[in-house]
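Hello,

Our lab assistant flagged a job as stuck in the queue for most of the afternoon. It eventually completed. Since we weren't sure the result was trustworthy after the delay, we are filing this so someone can double-check. Below is the sequence as submitted and the structure that was eventually returned. Let us know if re-running is recommended.
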Amino acid sequence: MLLTLTTTHRPATDLGHLLVKHPDRVQSFDLPAGTAHVLYPEADEARCTAALLVEVDPLKLGGGRGRRQATTPDSFTLGQYVNDRPYAASSLLSSALAKVFRSALRGESRDRPELAAAAIPLEVRVPVLRCRGGAELAVRVFAPLGWTVAATPLPLDEAYPEWGDSRYVDLTLTGTLRLADALNHLYVLLPVLDDAKHYWVAPDEVDKLLRAGTGWLAGHPERALITRRYLAHRRALAGEAMARLAELRLTDEPPTDDSIEGGPSTGDGVEGGPPTEAPGASLAVRRREAVLAALRDSGASRVLDLGCGGGALLTALVADRRFTQVVGTDVSSQALALAGRRLRLDRLPERQRDRIRLWQSALTYRDDRLRGYDAAVLMEVVEHLDPPRLPALEDAVFGHARPGTVVVTTPNVEYNVRYEGLGAGRFRHADHRFEWTRAEFAAWVDRVAATHGYTATIGGVGDEDPEVGCPTQLAVLNRTDEIRKEETTR
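-- returned structure --
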């Protein structure tokens, strides 16, 4: 089976640095089911093509794996040795990608780190791909990721066109993407289209899927099909993966009818940039970065993430060593369980685990455990409360817990007109009880600050529209020196 990867980025031979495979050499790698070879059919400054050729040994593929091996498309005994696996792209090619291009899949390049982080022109060709669902399915899974897709069905027999098409396609993808993103798309979607994994699918496949799908799978319109097929139709694993993806669906996609009518709140909403927004960091990422920047500017080291949901912000907080204690709270025990899995608490070293606390707590009730912290975050939380409950939150957070700094983010309802999928009068999430205009948010922030002894600055997150402002509103409230001195002398 064969896969070629071409770039016209100049100098094109830098592709060798990204793949960590020299264009002047043929390199071979042992695989459990055969051998993989990497070679360069063309390599000059203007155009460079790397080819991954996988030779499958039918004896290795068919024998010695025990009863729990995954079945080939032909499950009878001879079919384990005589089948299309040596010729048609499948999960075997996906496994070869993972072994041969491991650093490139992770987006790492010691020699060209800036190029590894950049989107470059790419063309991928898989001349024979078993595609259960036909060429149309190949378009459905690759096109939403920024690829231009050409999937040409291969005839059963060129000499007898009346026999029709086979179940195989000649796939060509063209687009401008990071190499790591391209390889991760292929790693997940080649076996999805083939729909017949060559190995037993264990529970750790869920983590592999979510790792490779970071940044794109949660918002993919075919995520249910992709998840089900990647996990070999194992319902329990697919259910776990879909639950975790639901928590990851922050703002990696513009609103659609599905997301607007979505399920329970994750504390992070589901809004994203408008469909015409240029490629780049999603609003979710930019919002987290803005919150982290505000926390760093405050000098905080002990931080509360109030209404933490599935733990997206917690993960970023824990990764920053300046935050010596990180507490996530949520009213939902399910959300806290998901946050614990995302943080991998059961695998962390004891010293690292001791920095983290996950507590079930409602933000409309006073909780003594939350007192005495340097900073607290209410990221996409307040809009999930009924307006009559806001005074209770204000008292519990600003009056009772009284952290030194409070960072608040919430949607800007004026920006909703820029979302094509959002009808008039509708909110960005089915669980939102309200969404404020910029003037309404400013009035609320000013009143809370004046009542509880804080000073406030208000800004925005995301590209600013001259008419309707930024998609996300952000406020940073700092307790006044007088209040802090008064507590110090008590």
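-- support follow-up --
The delay was a queue issue, not a problem with the job. The result is valid. The longest strand covers residues 165-177. The radius of gyration is 26 Å.
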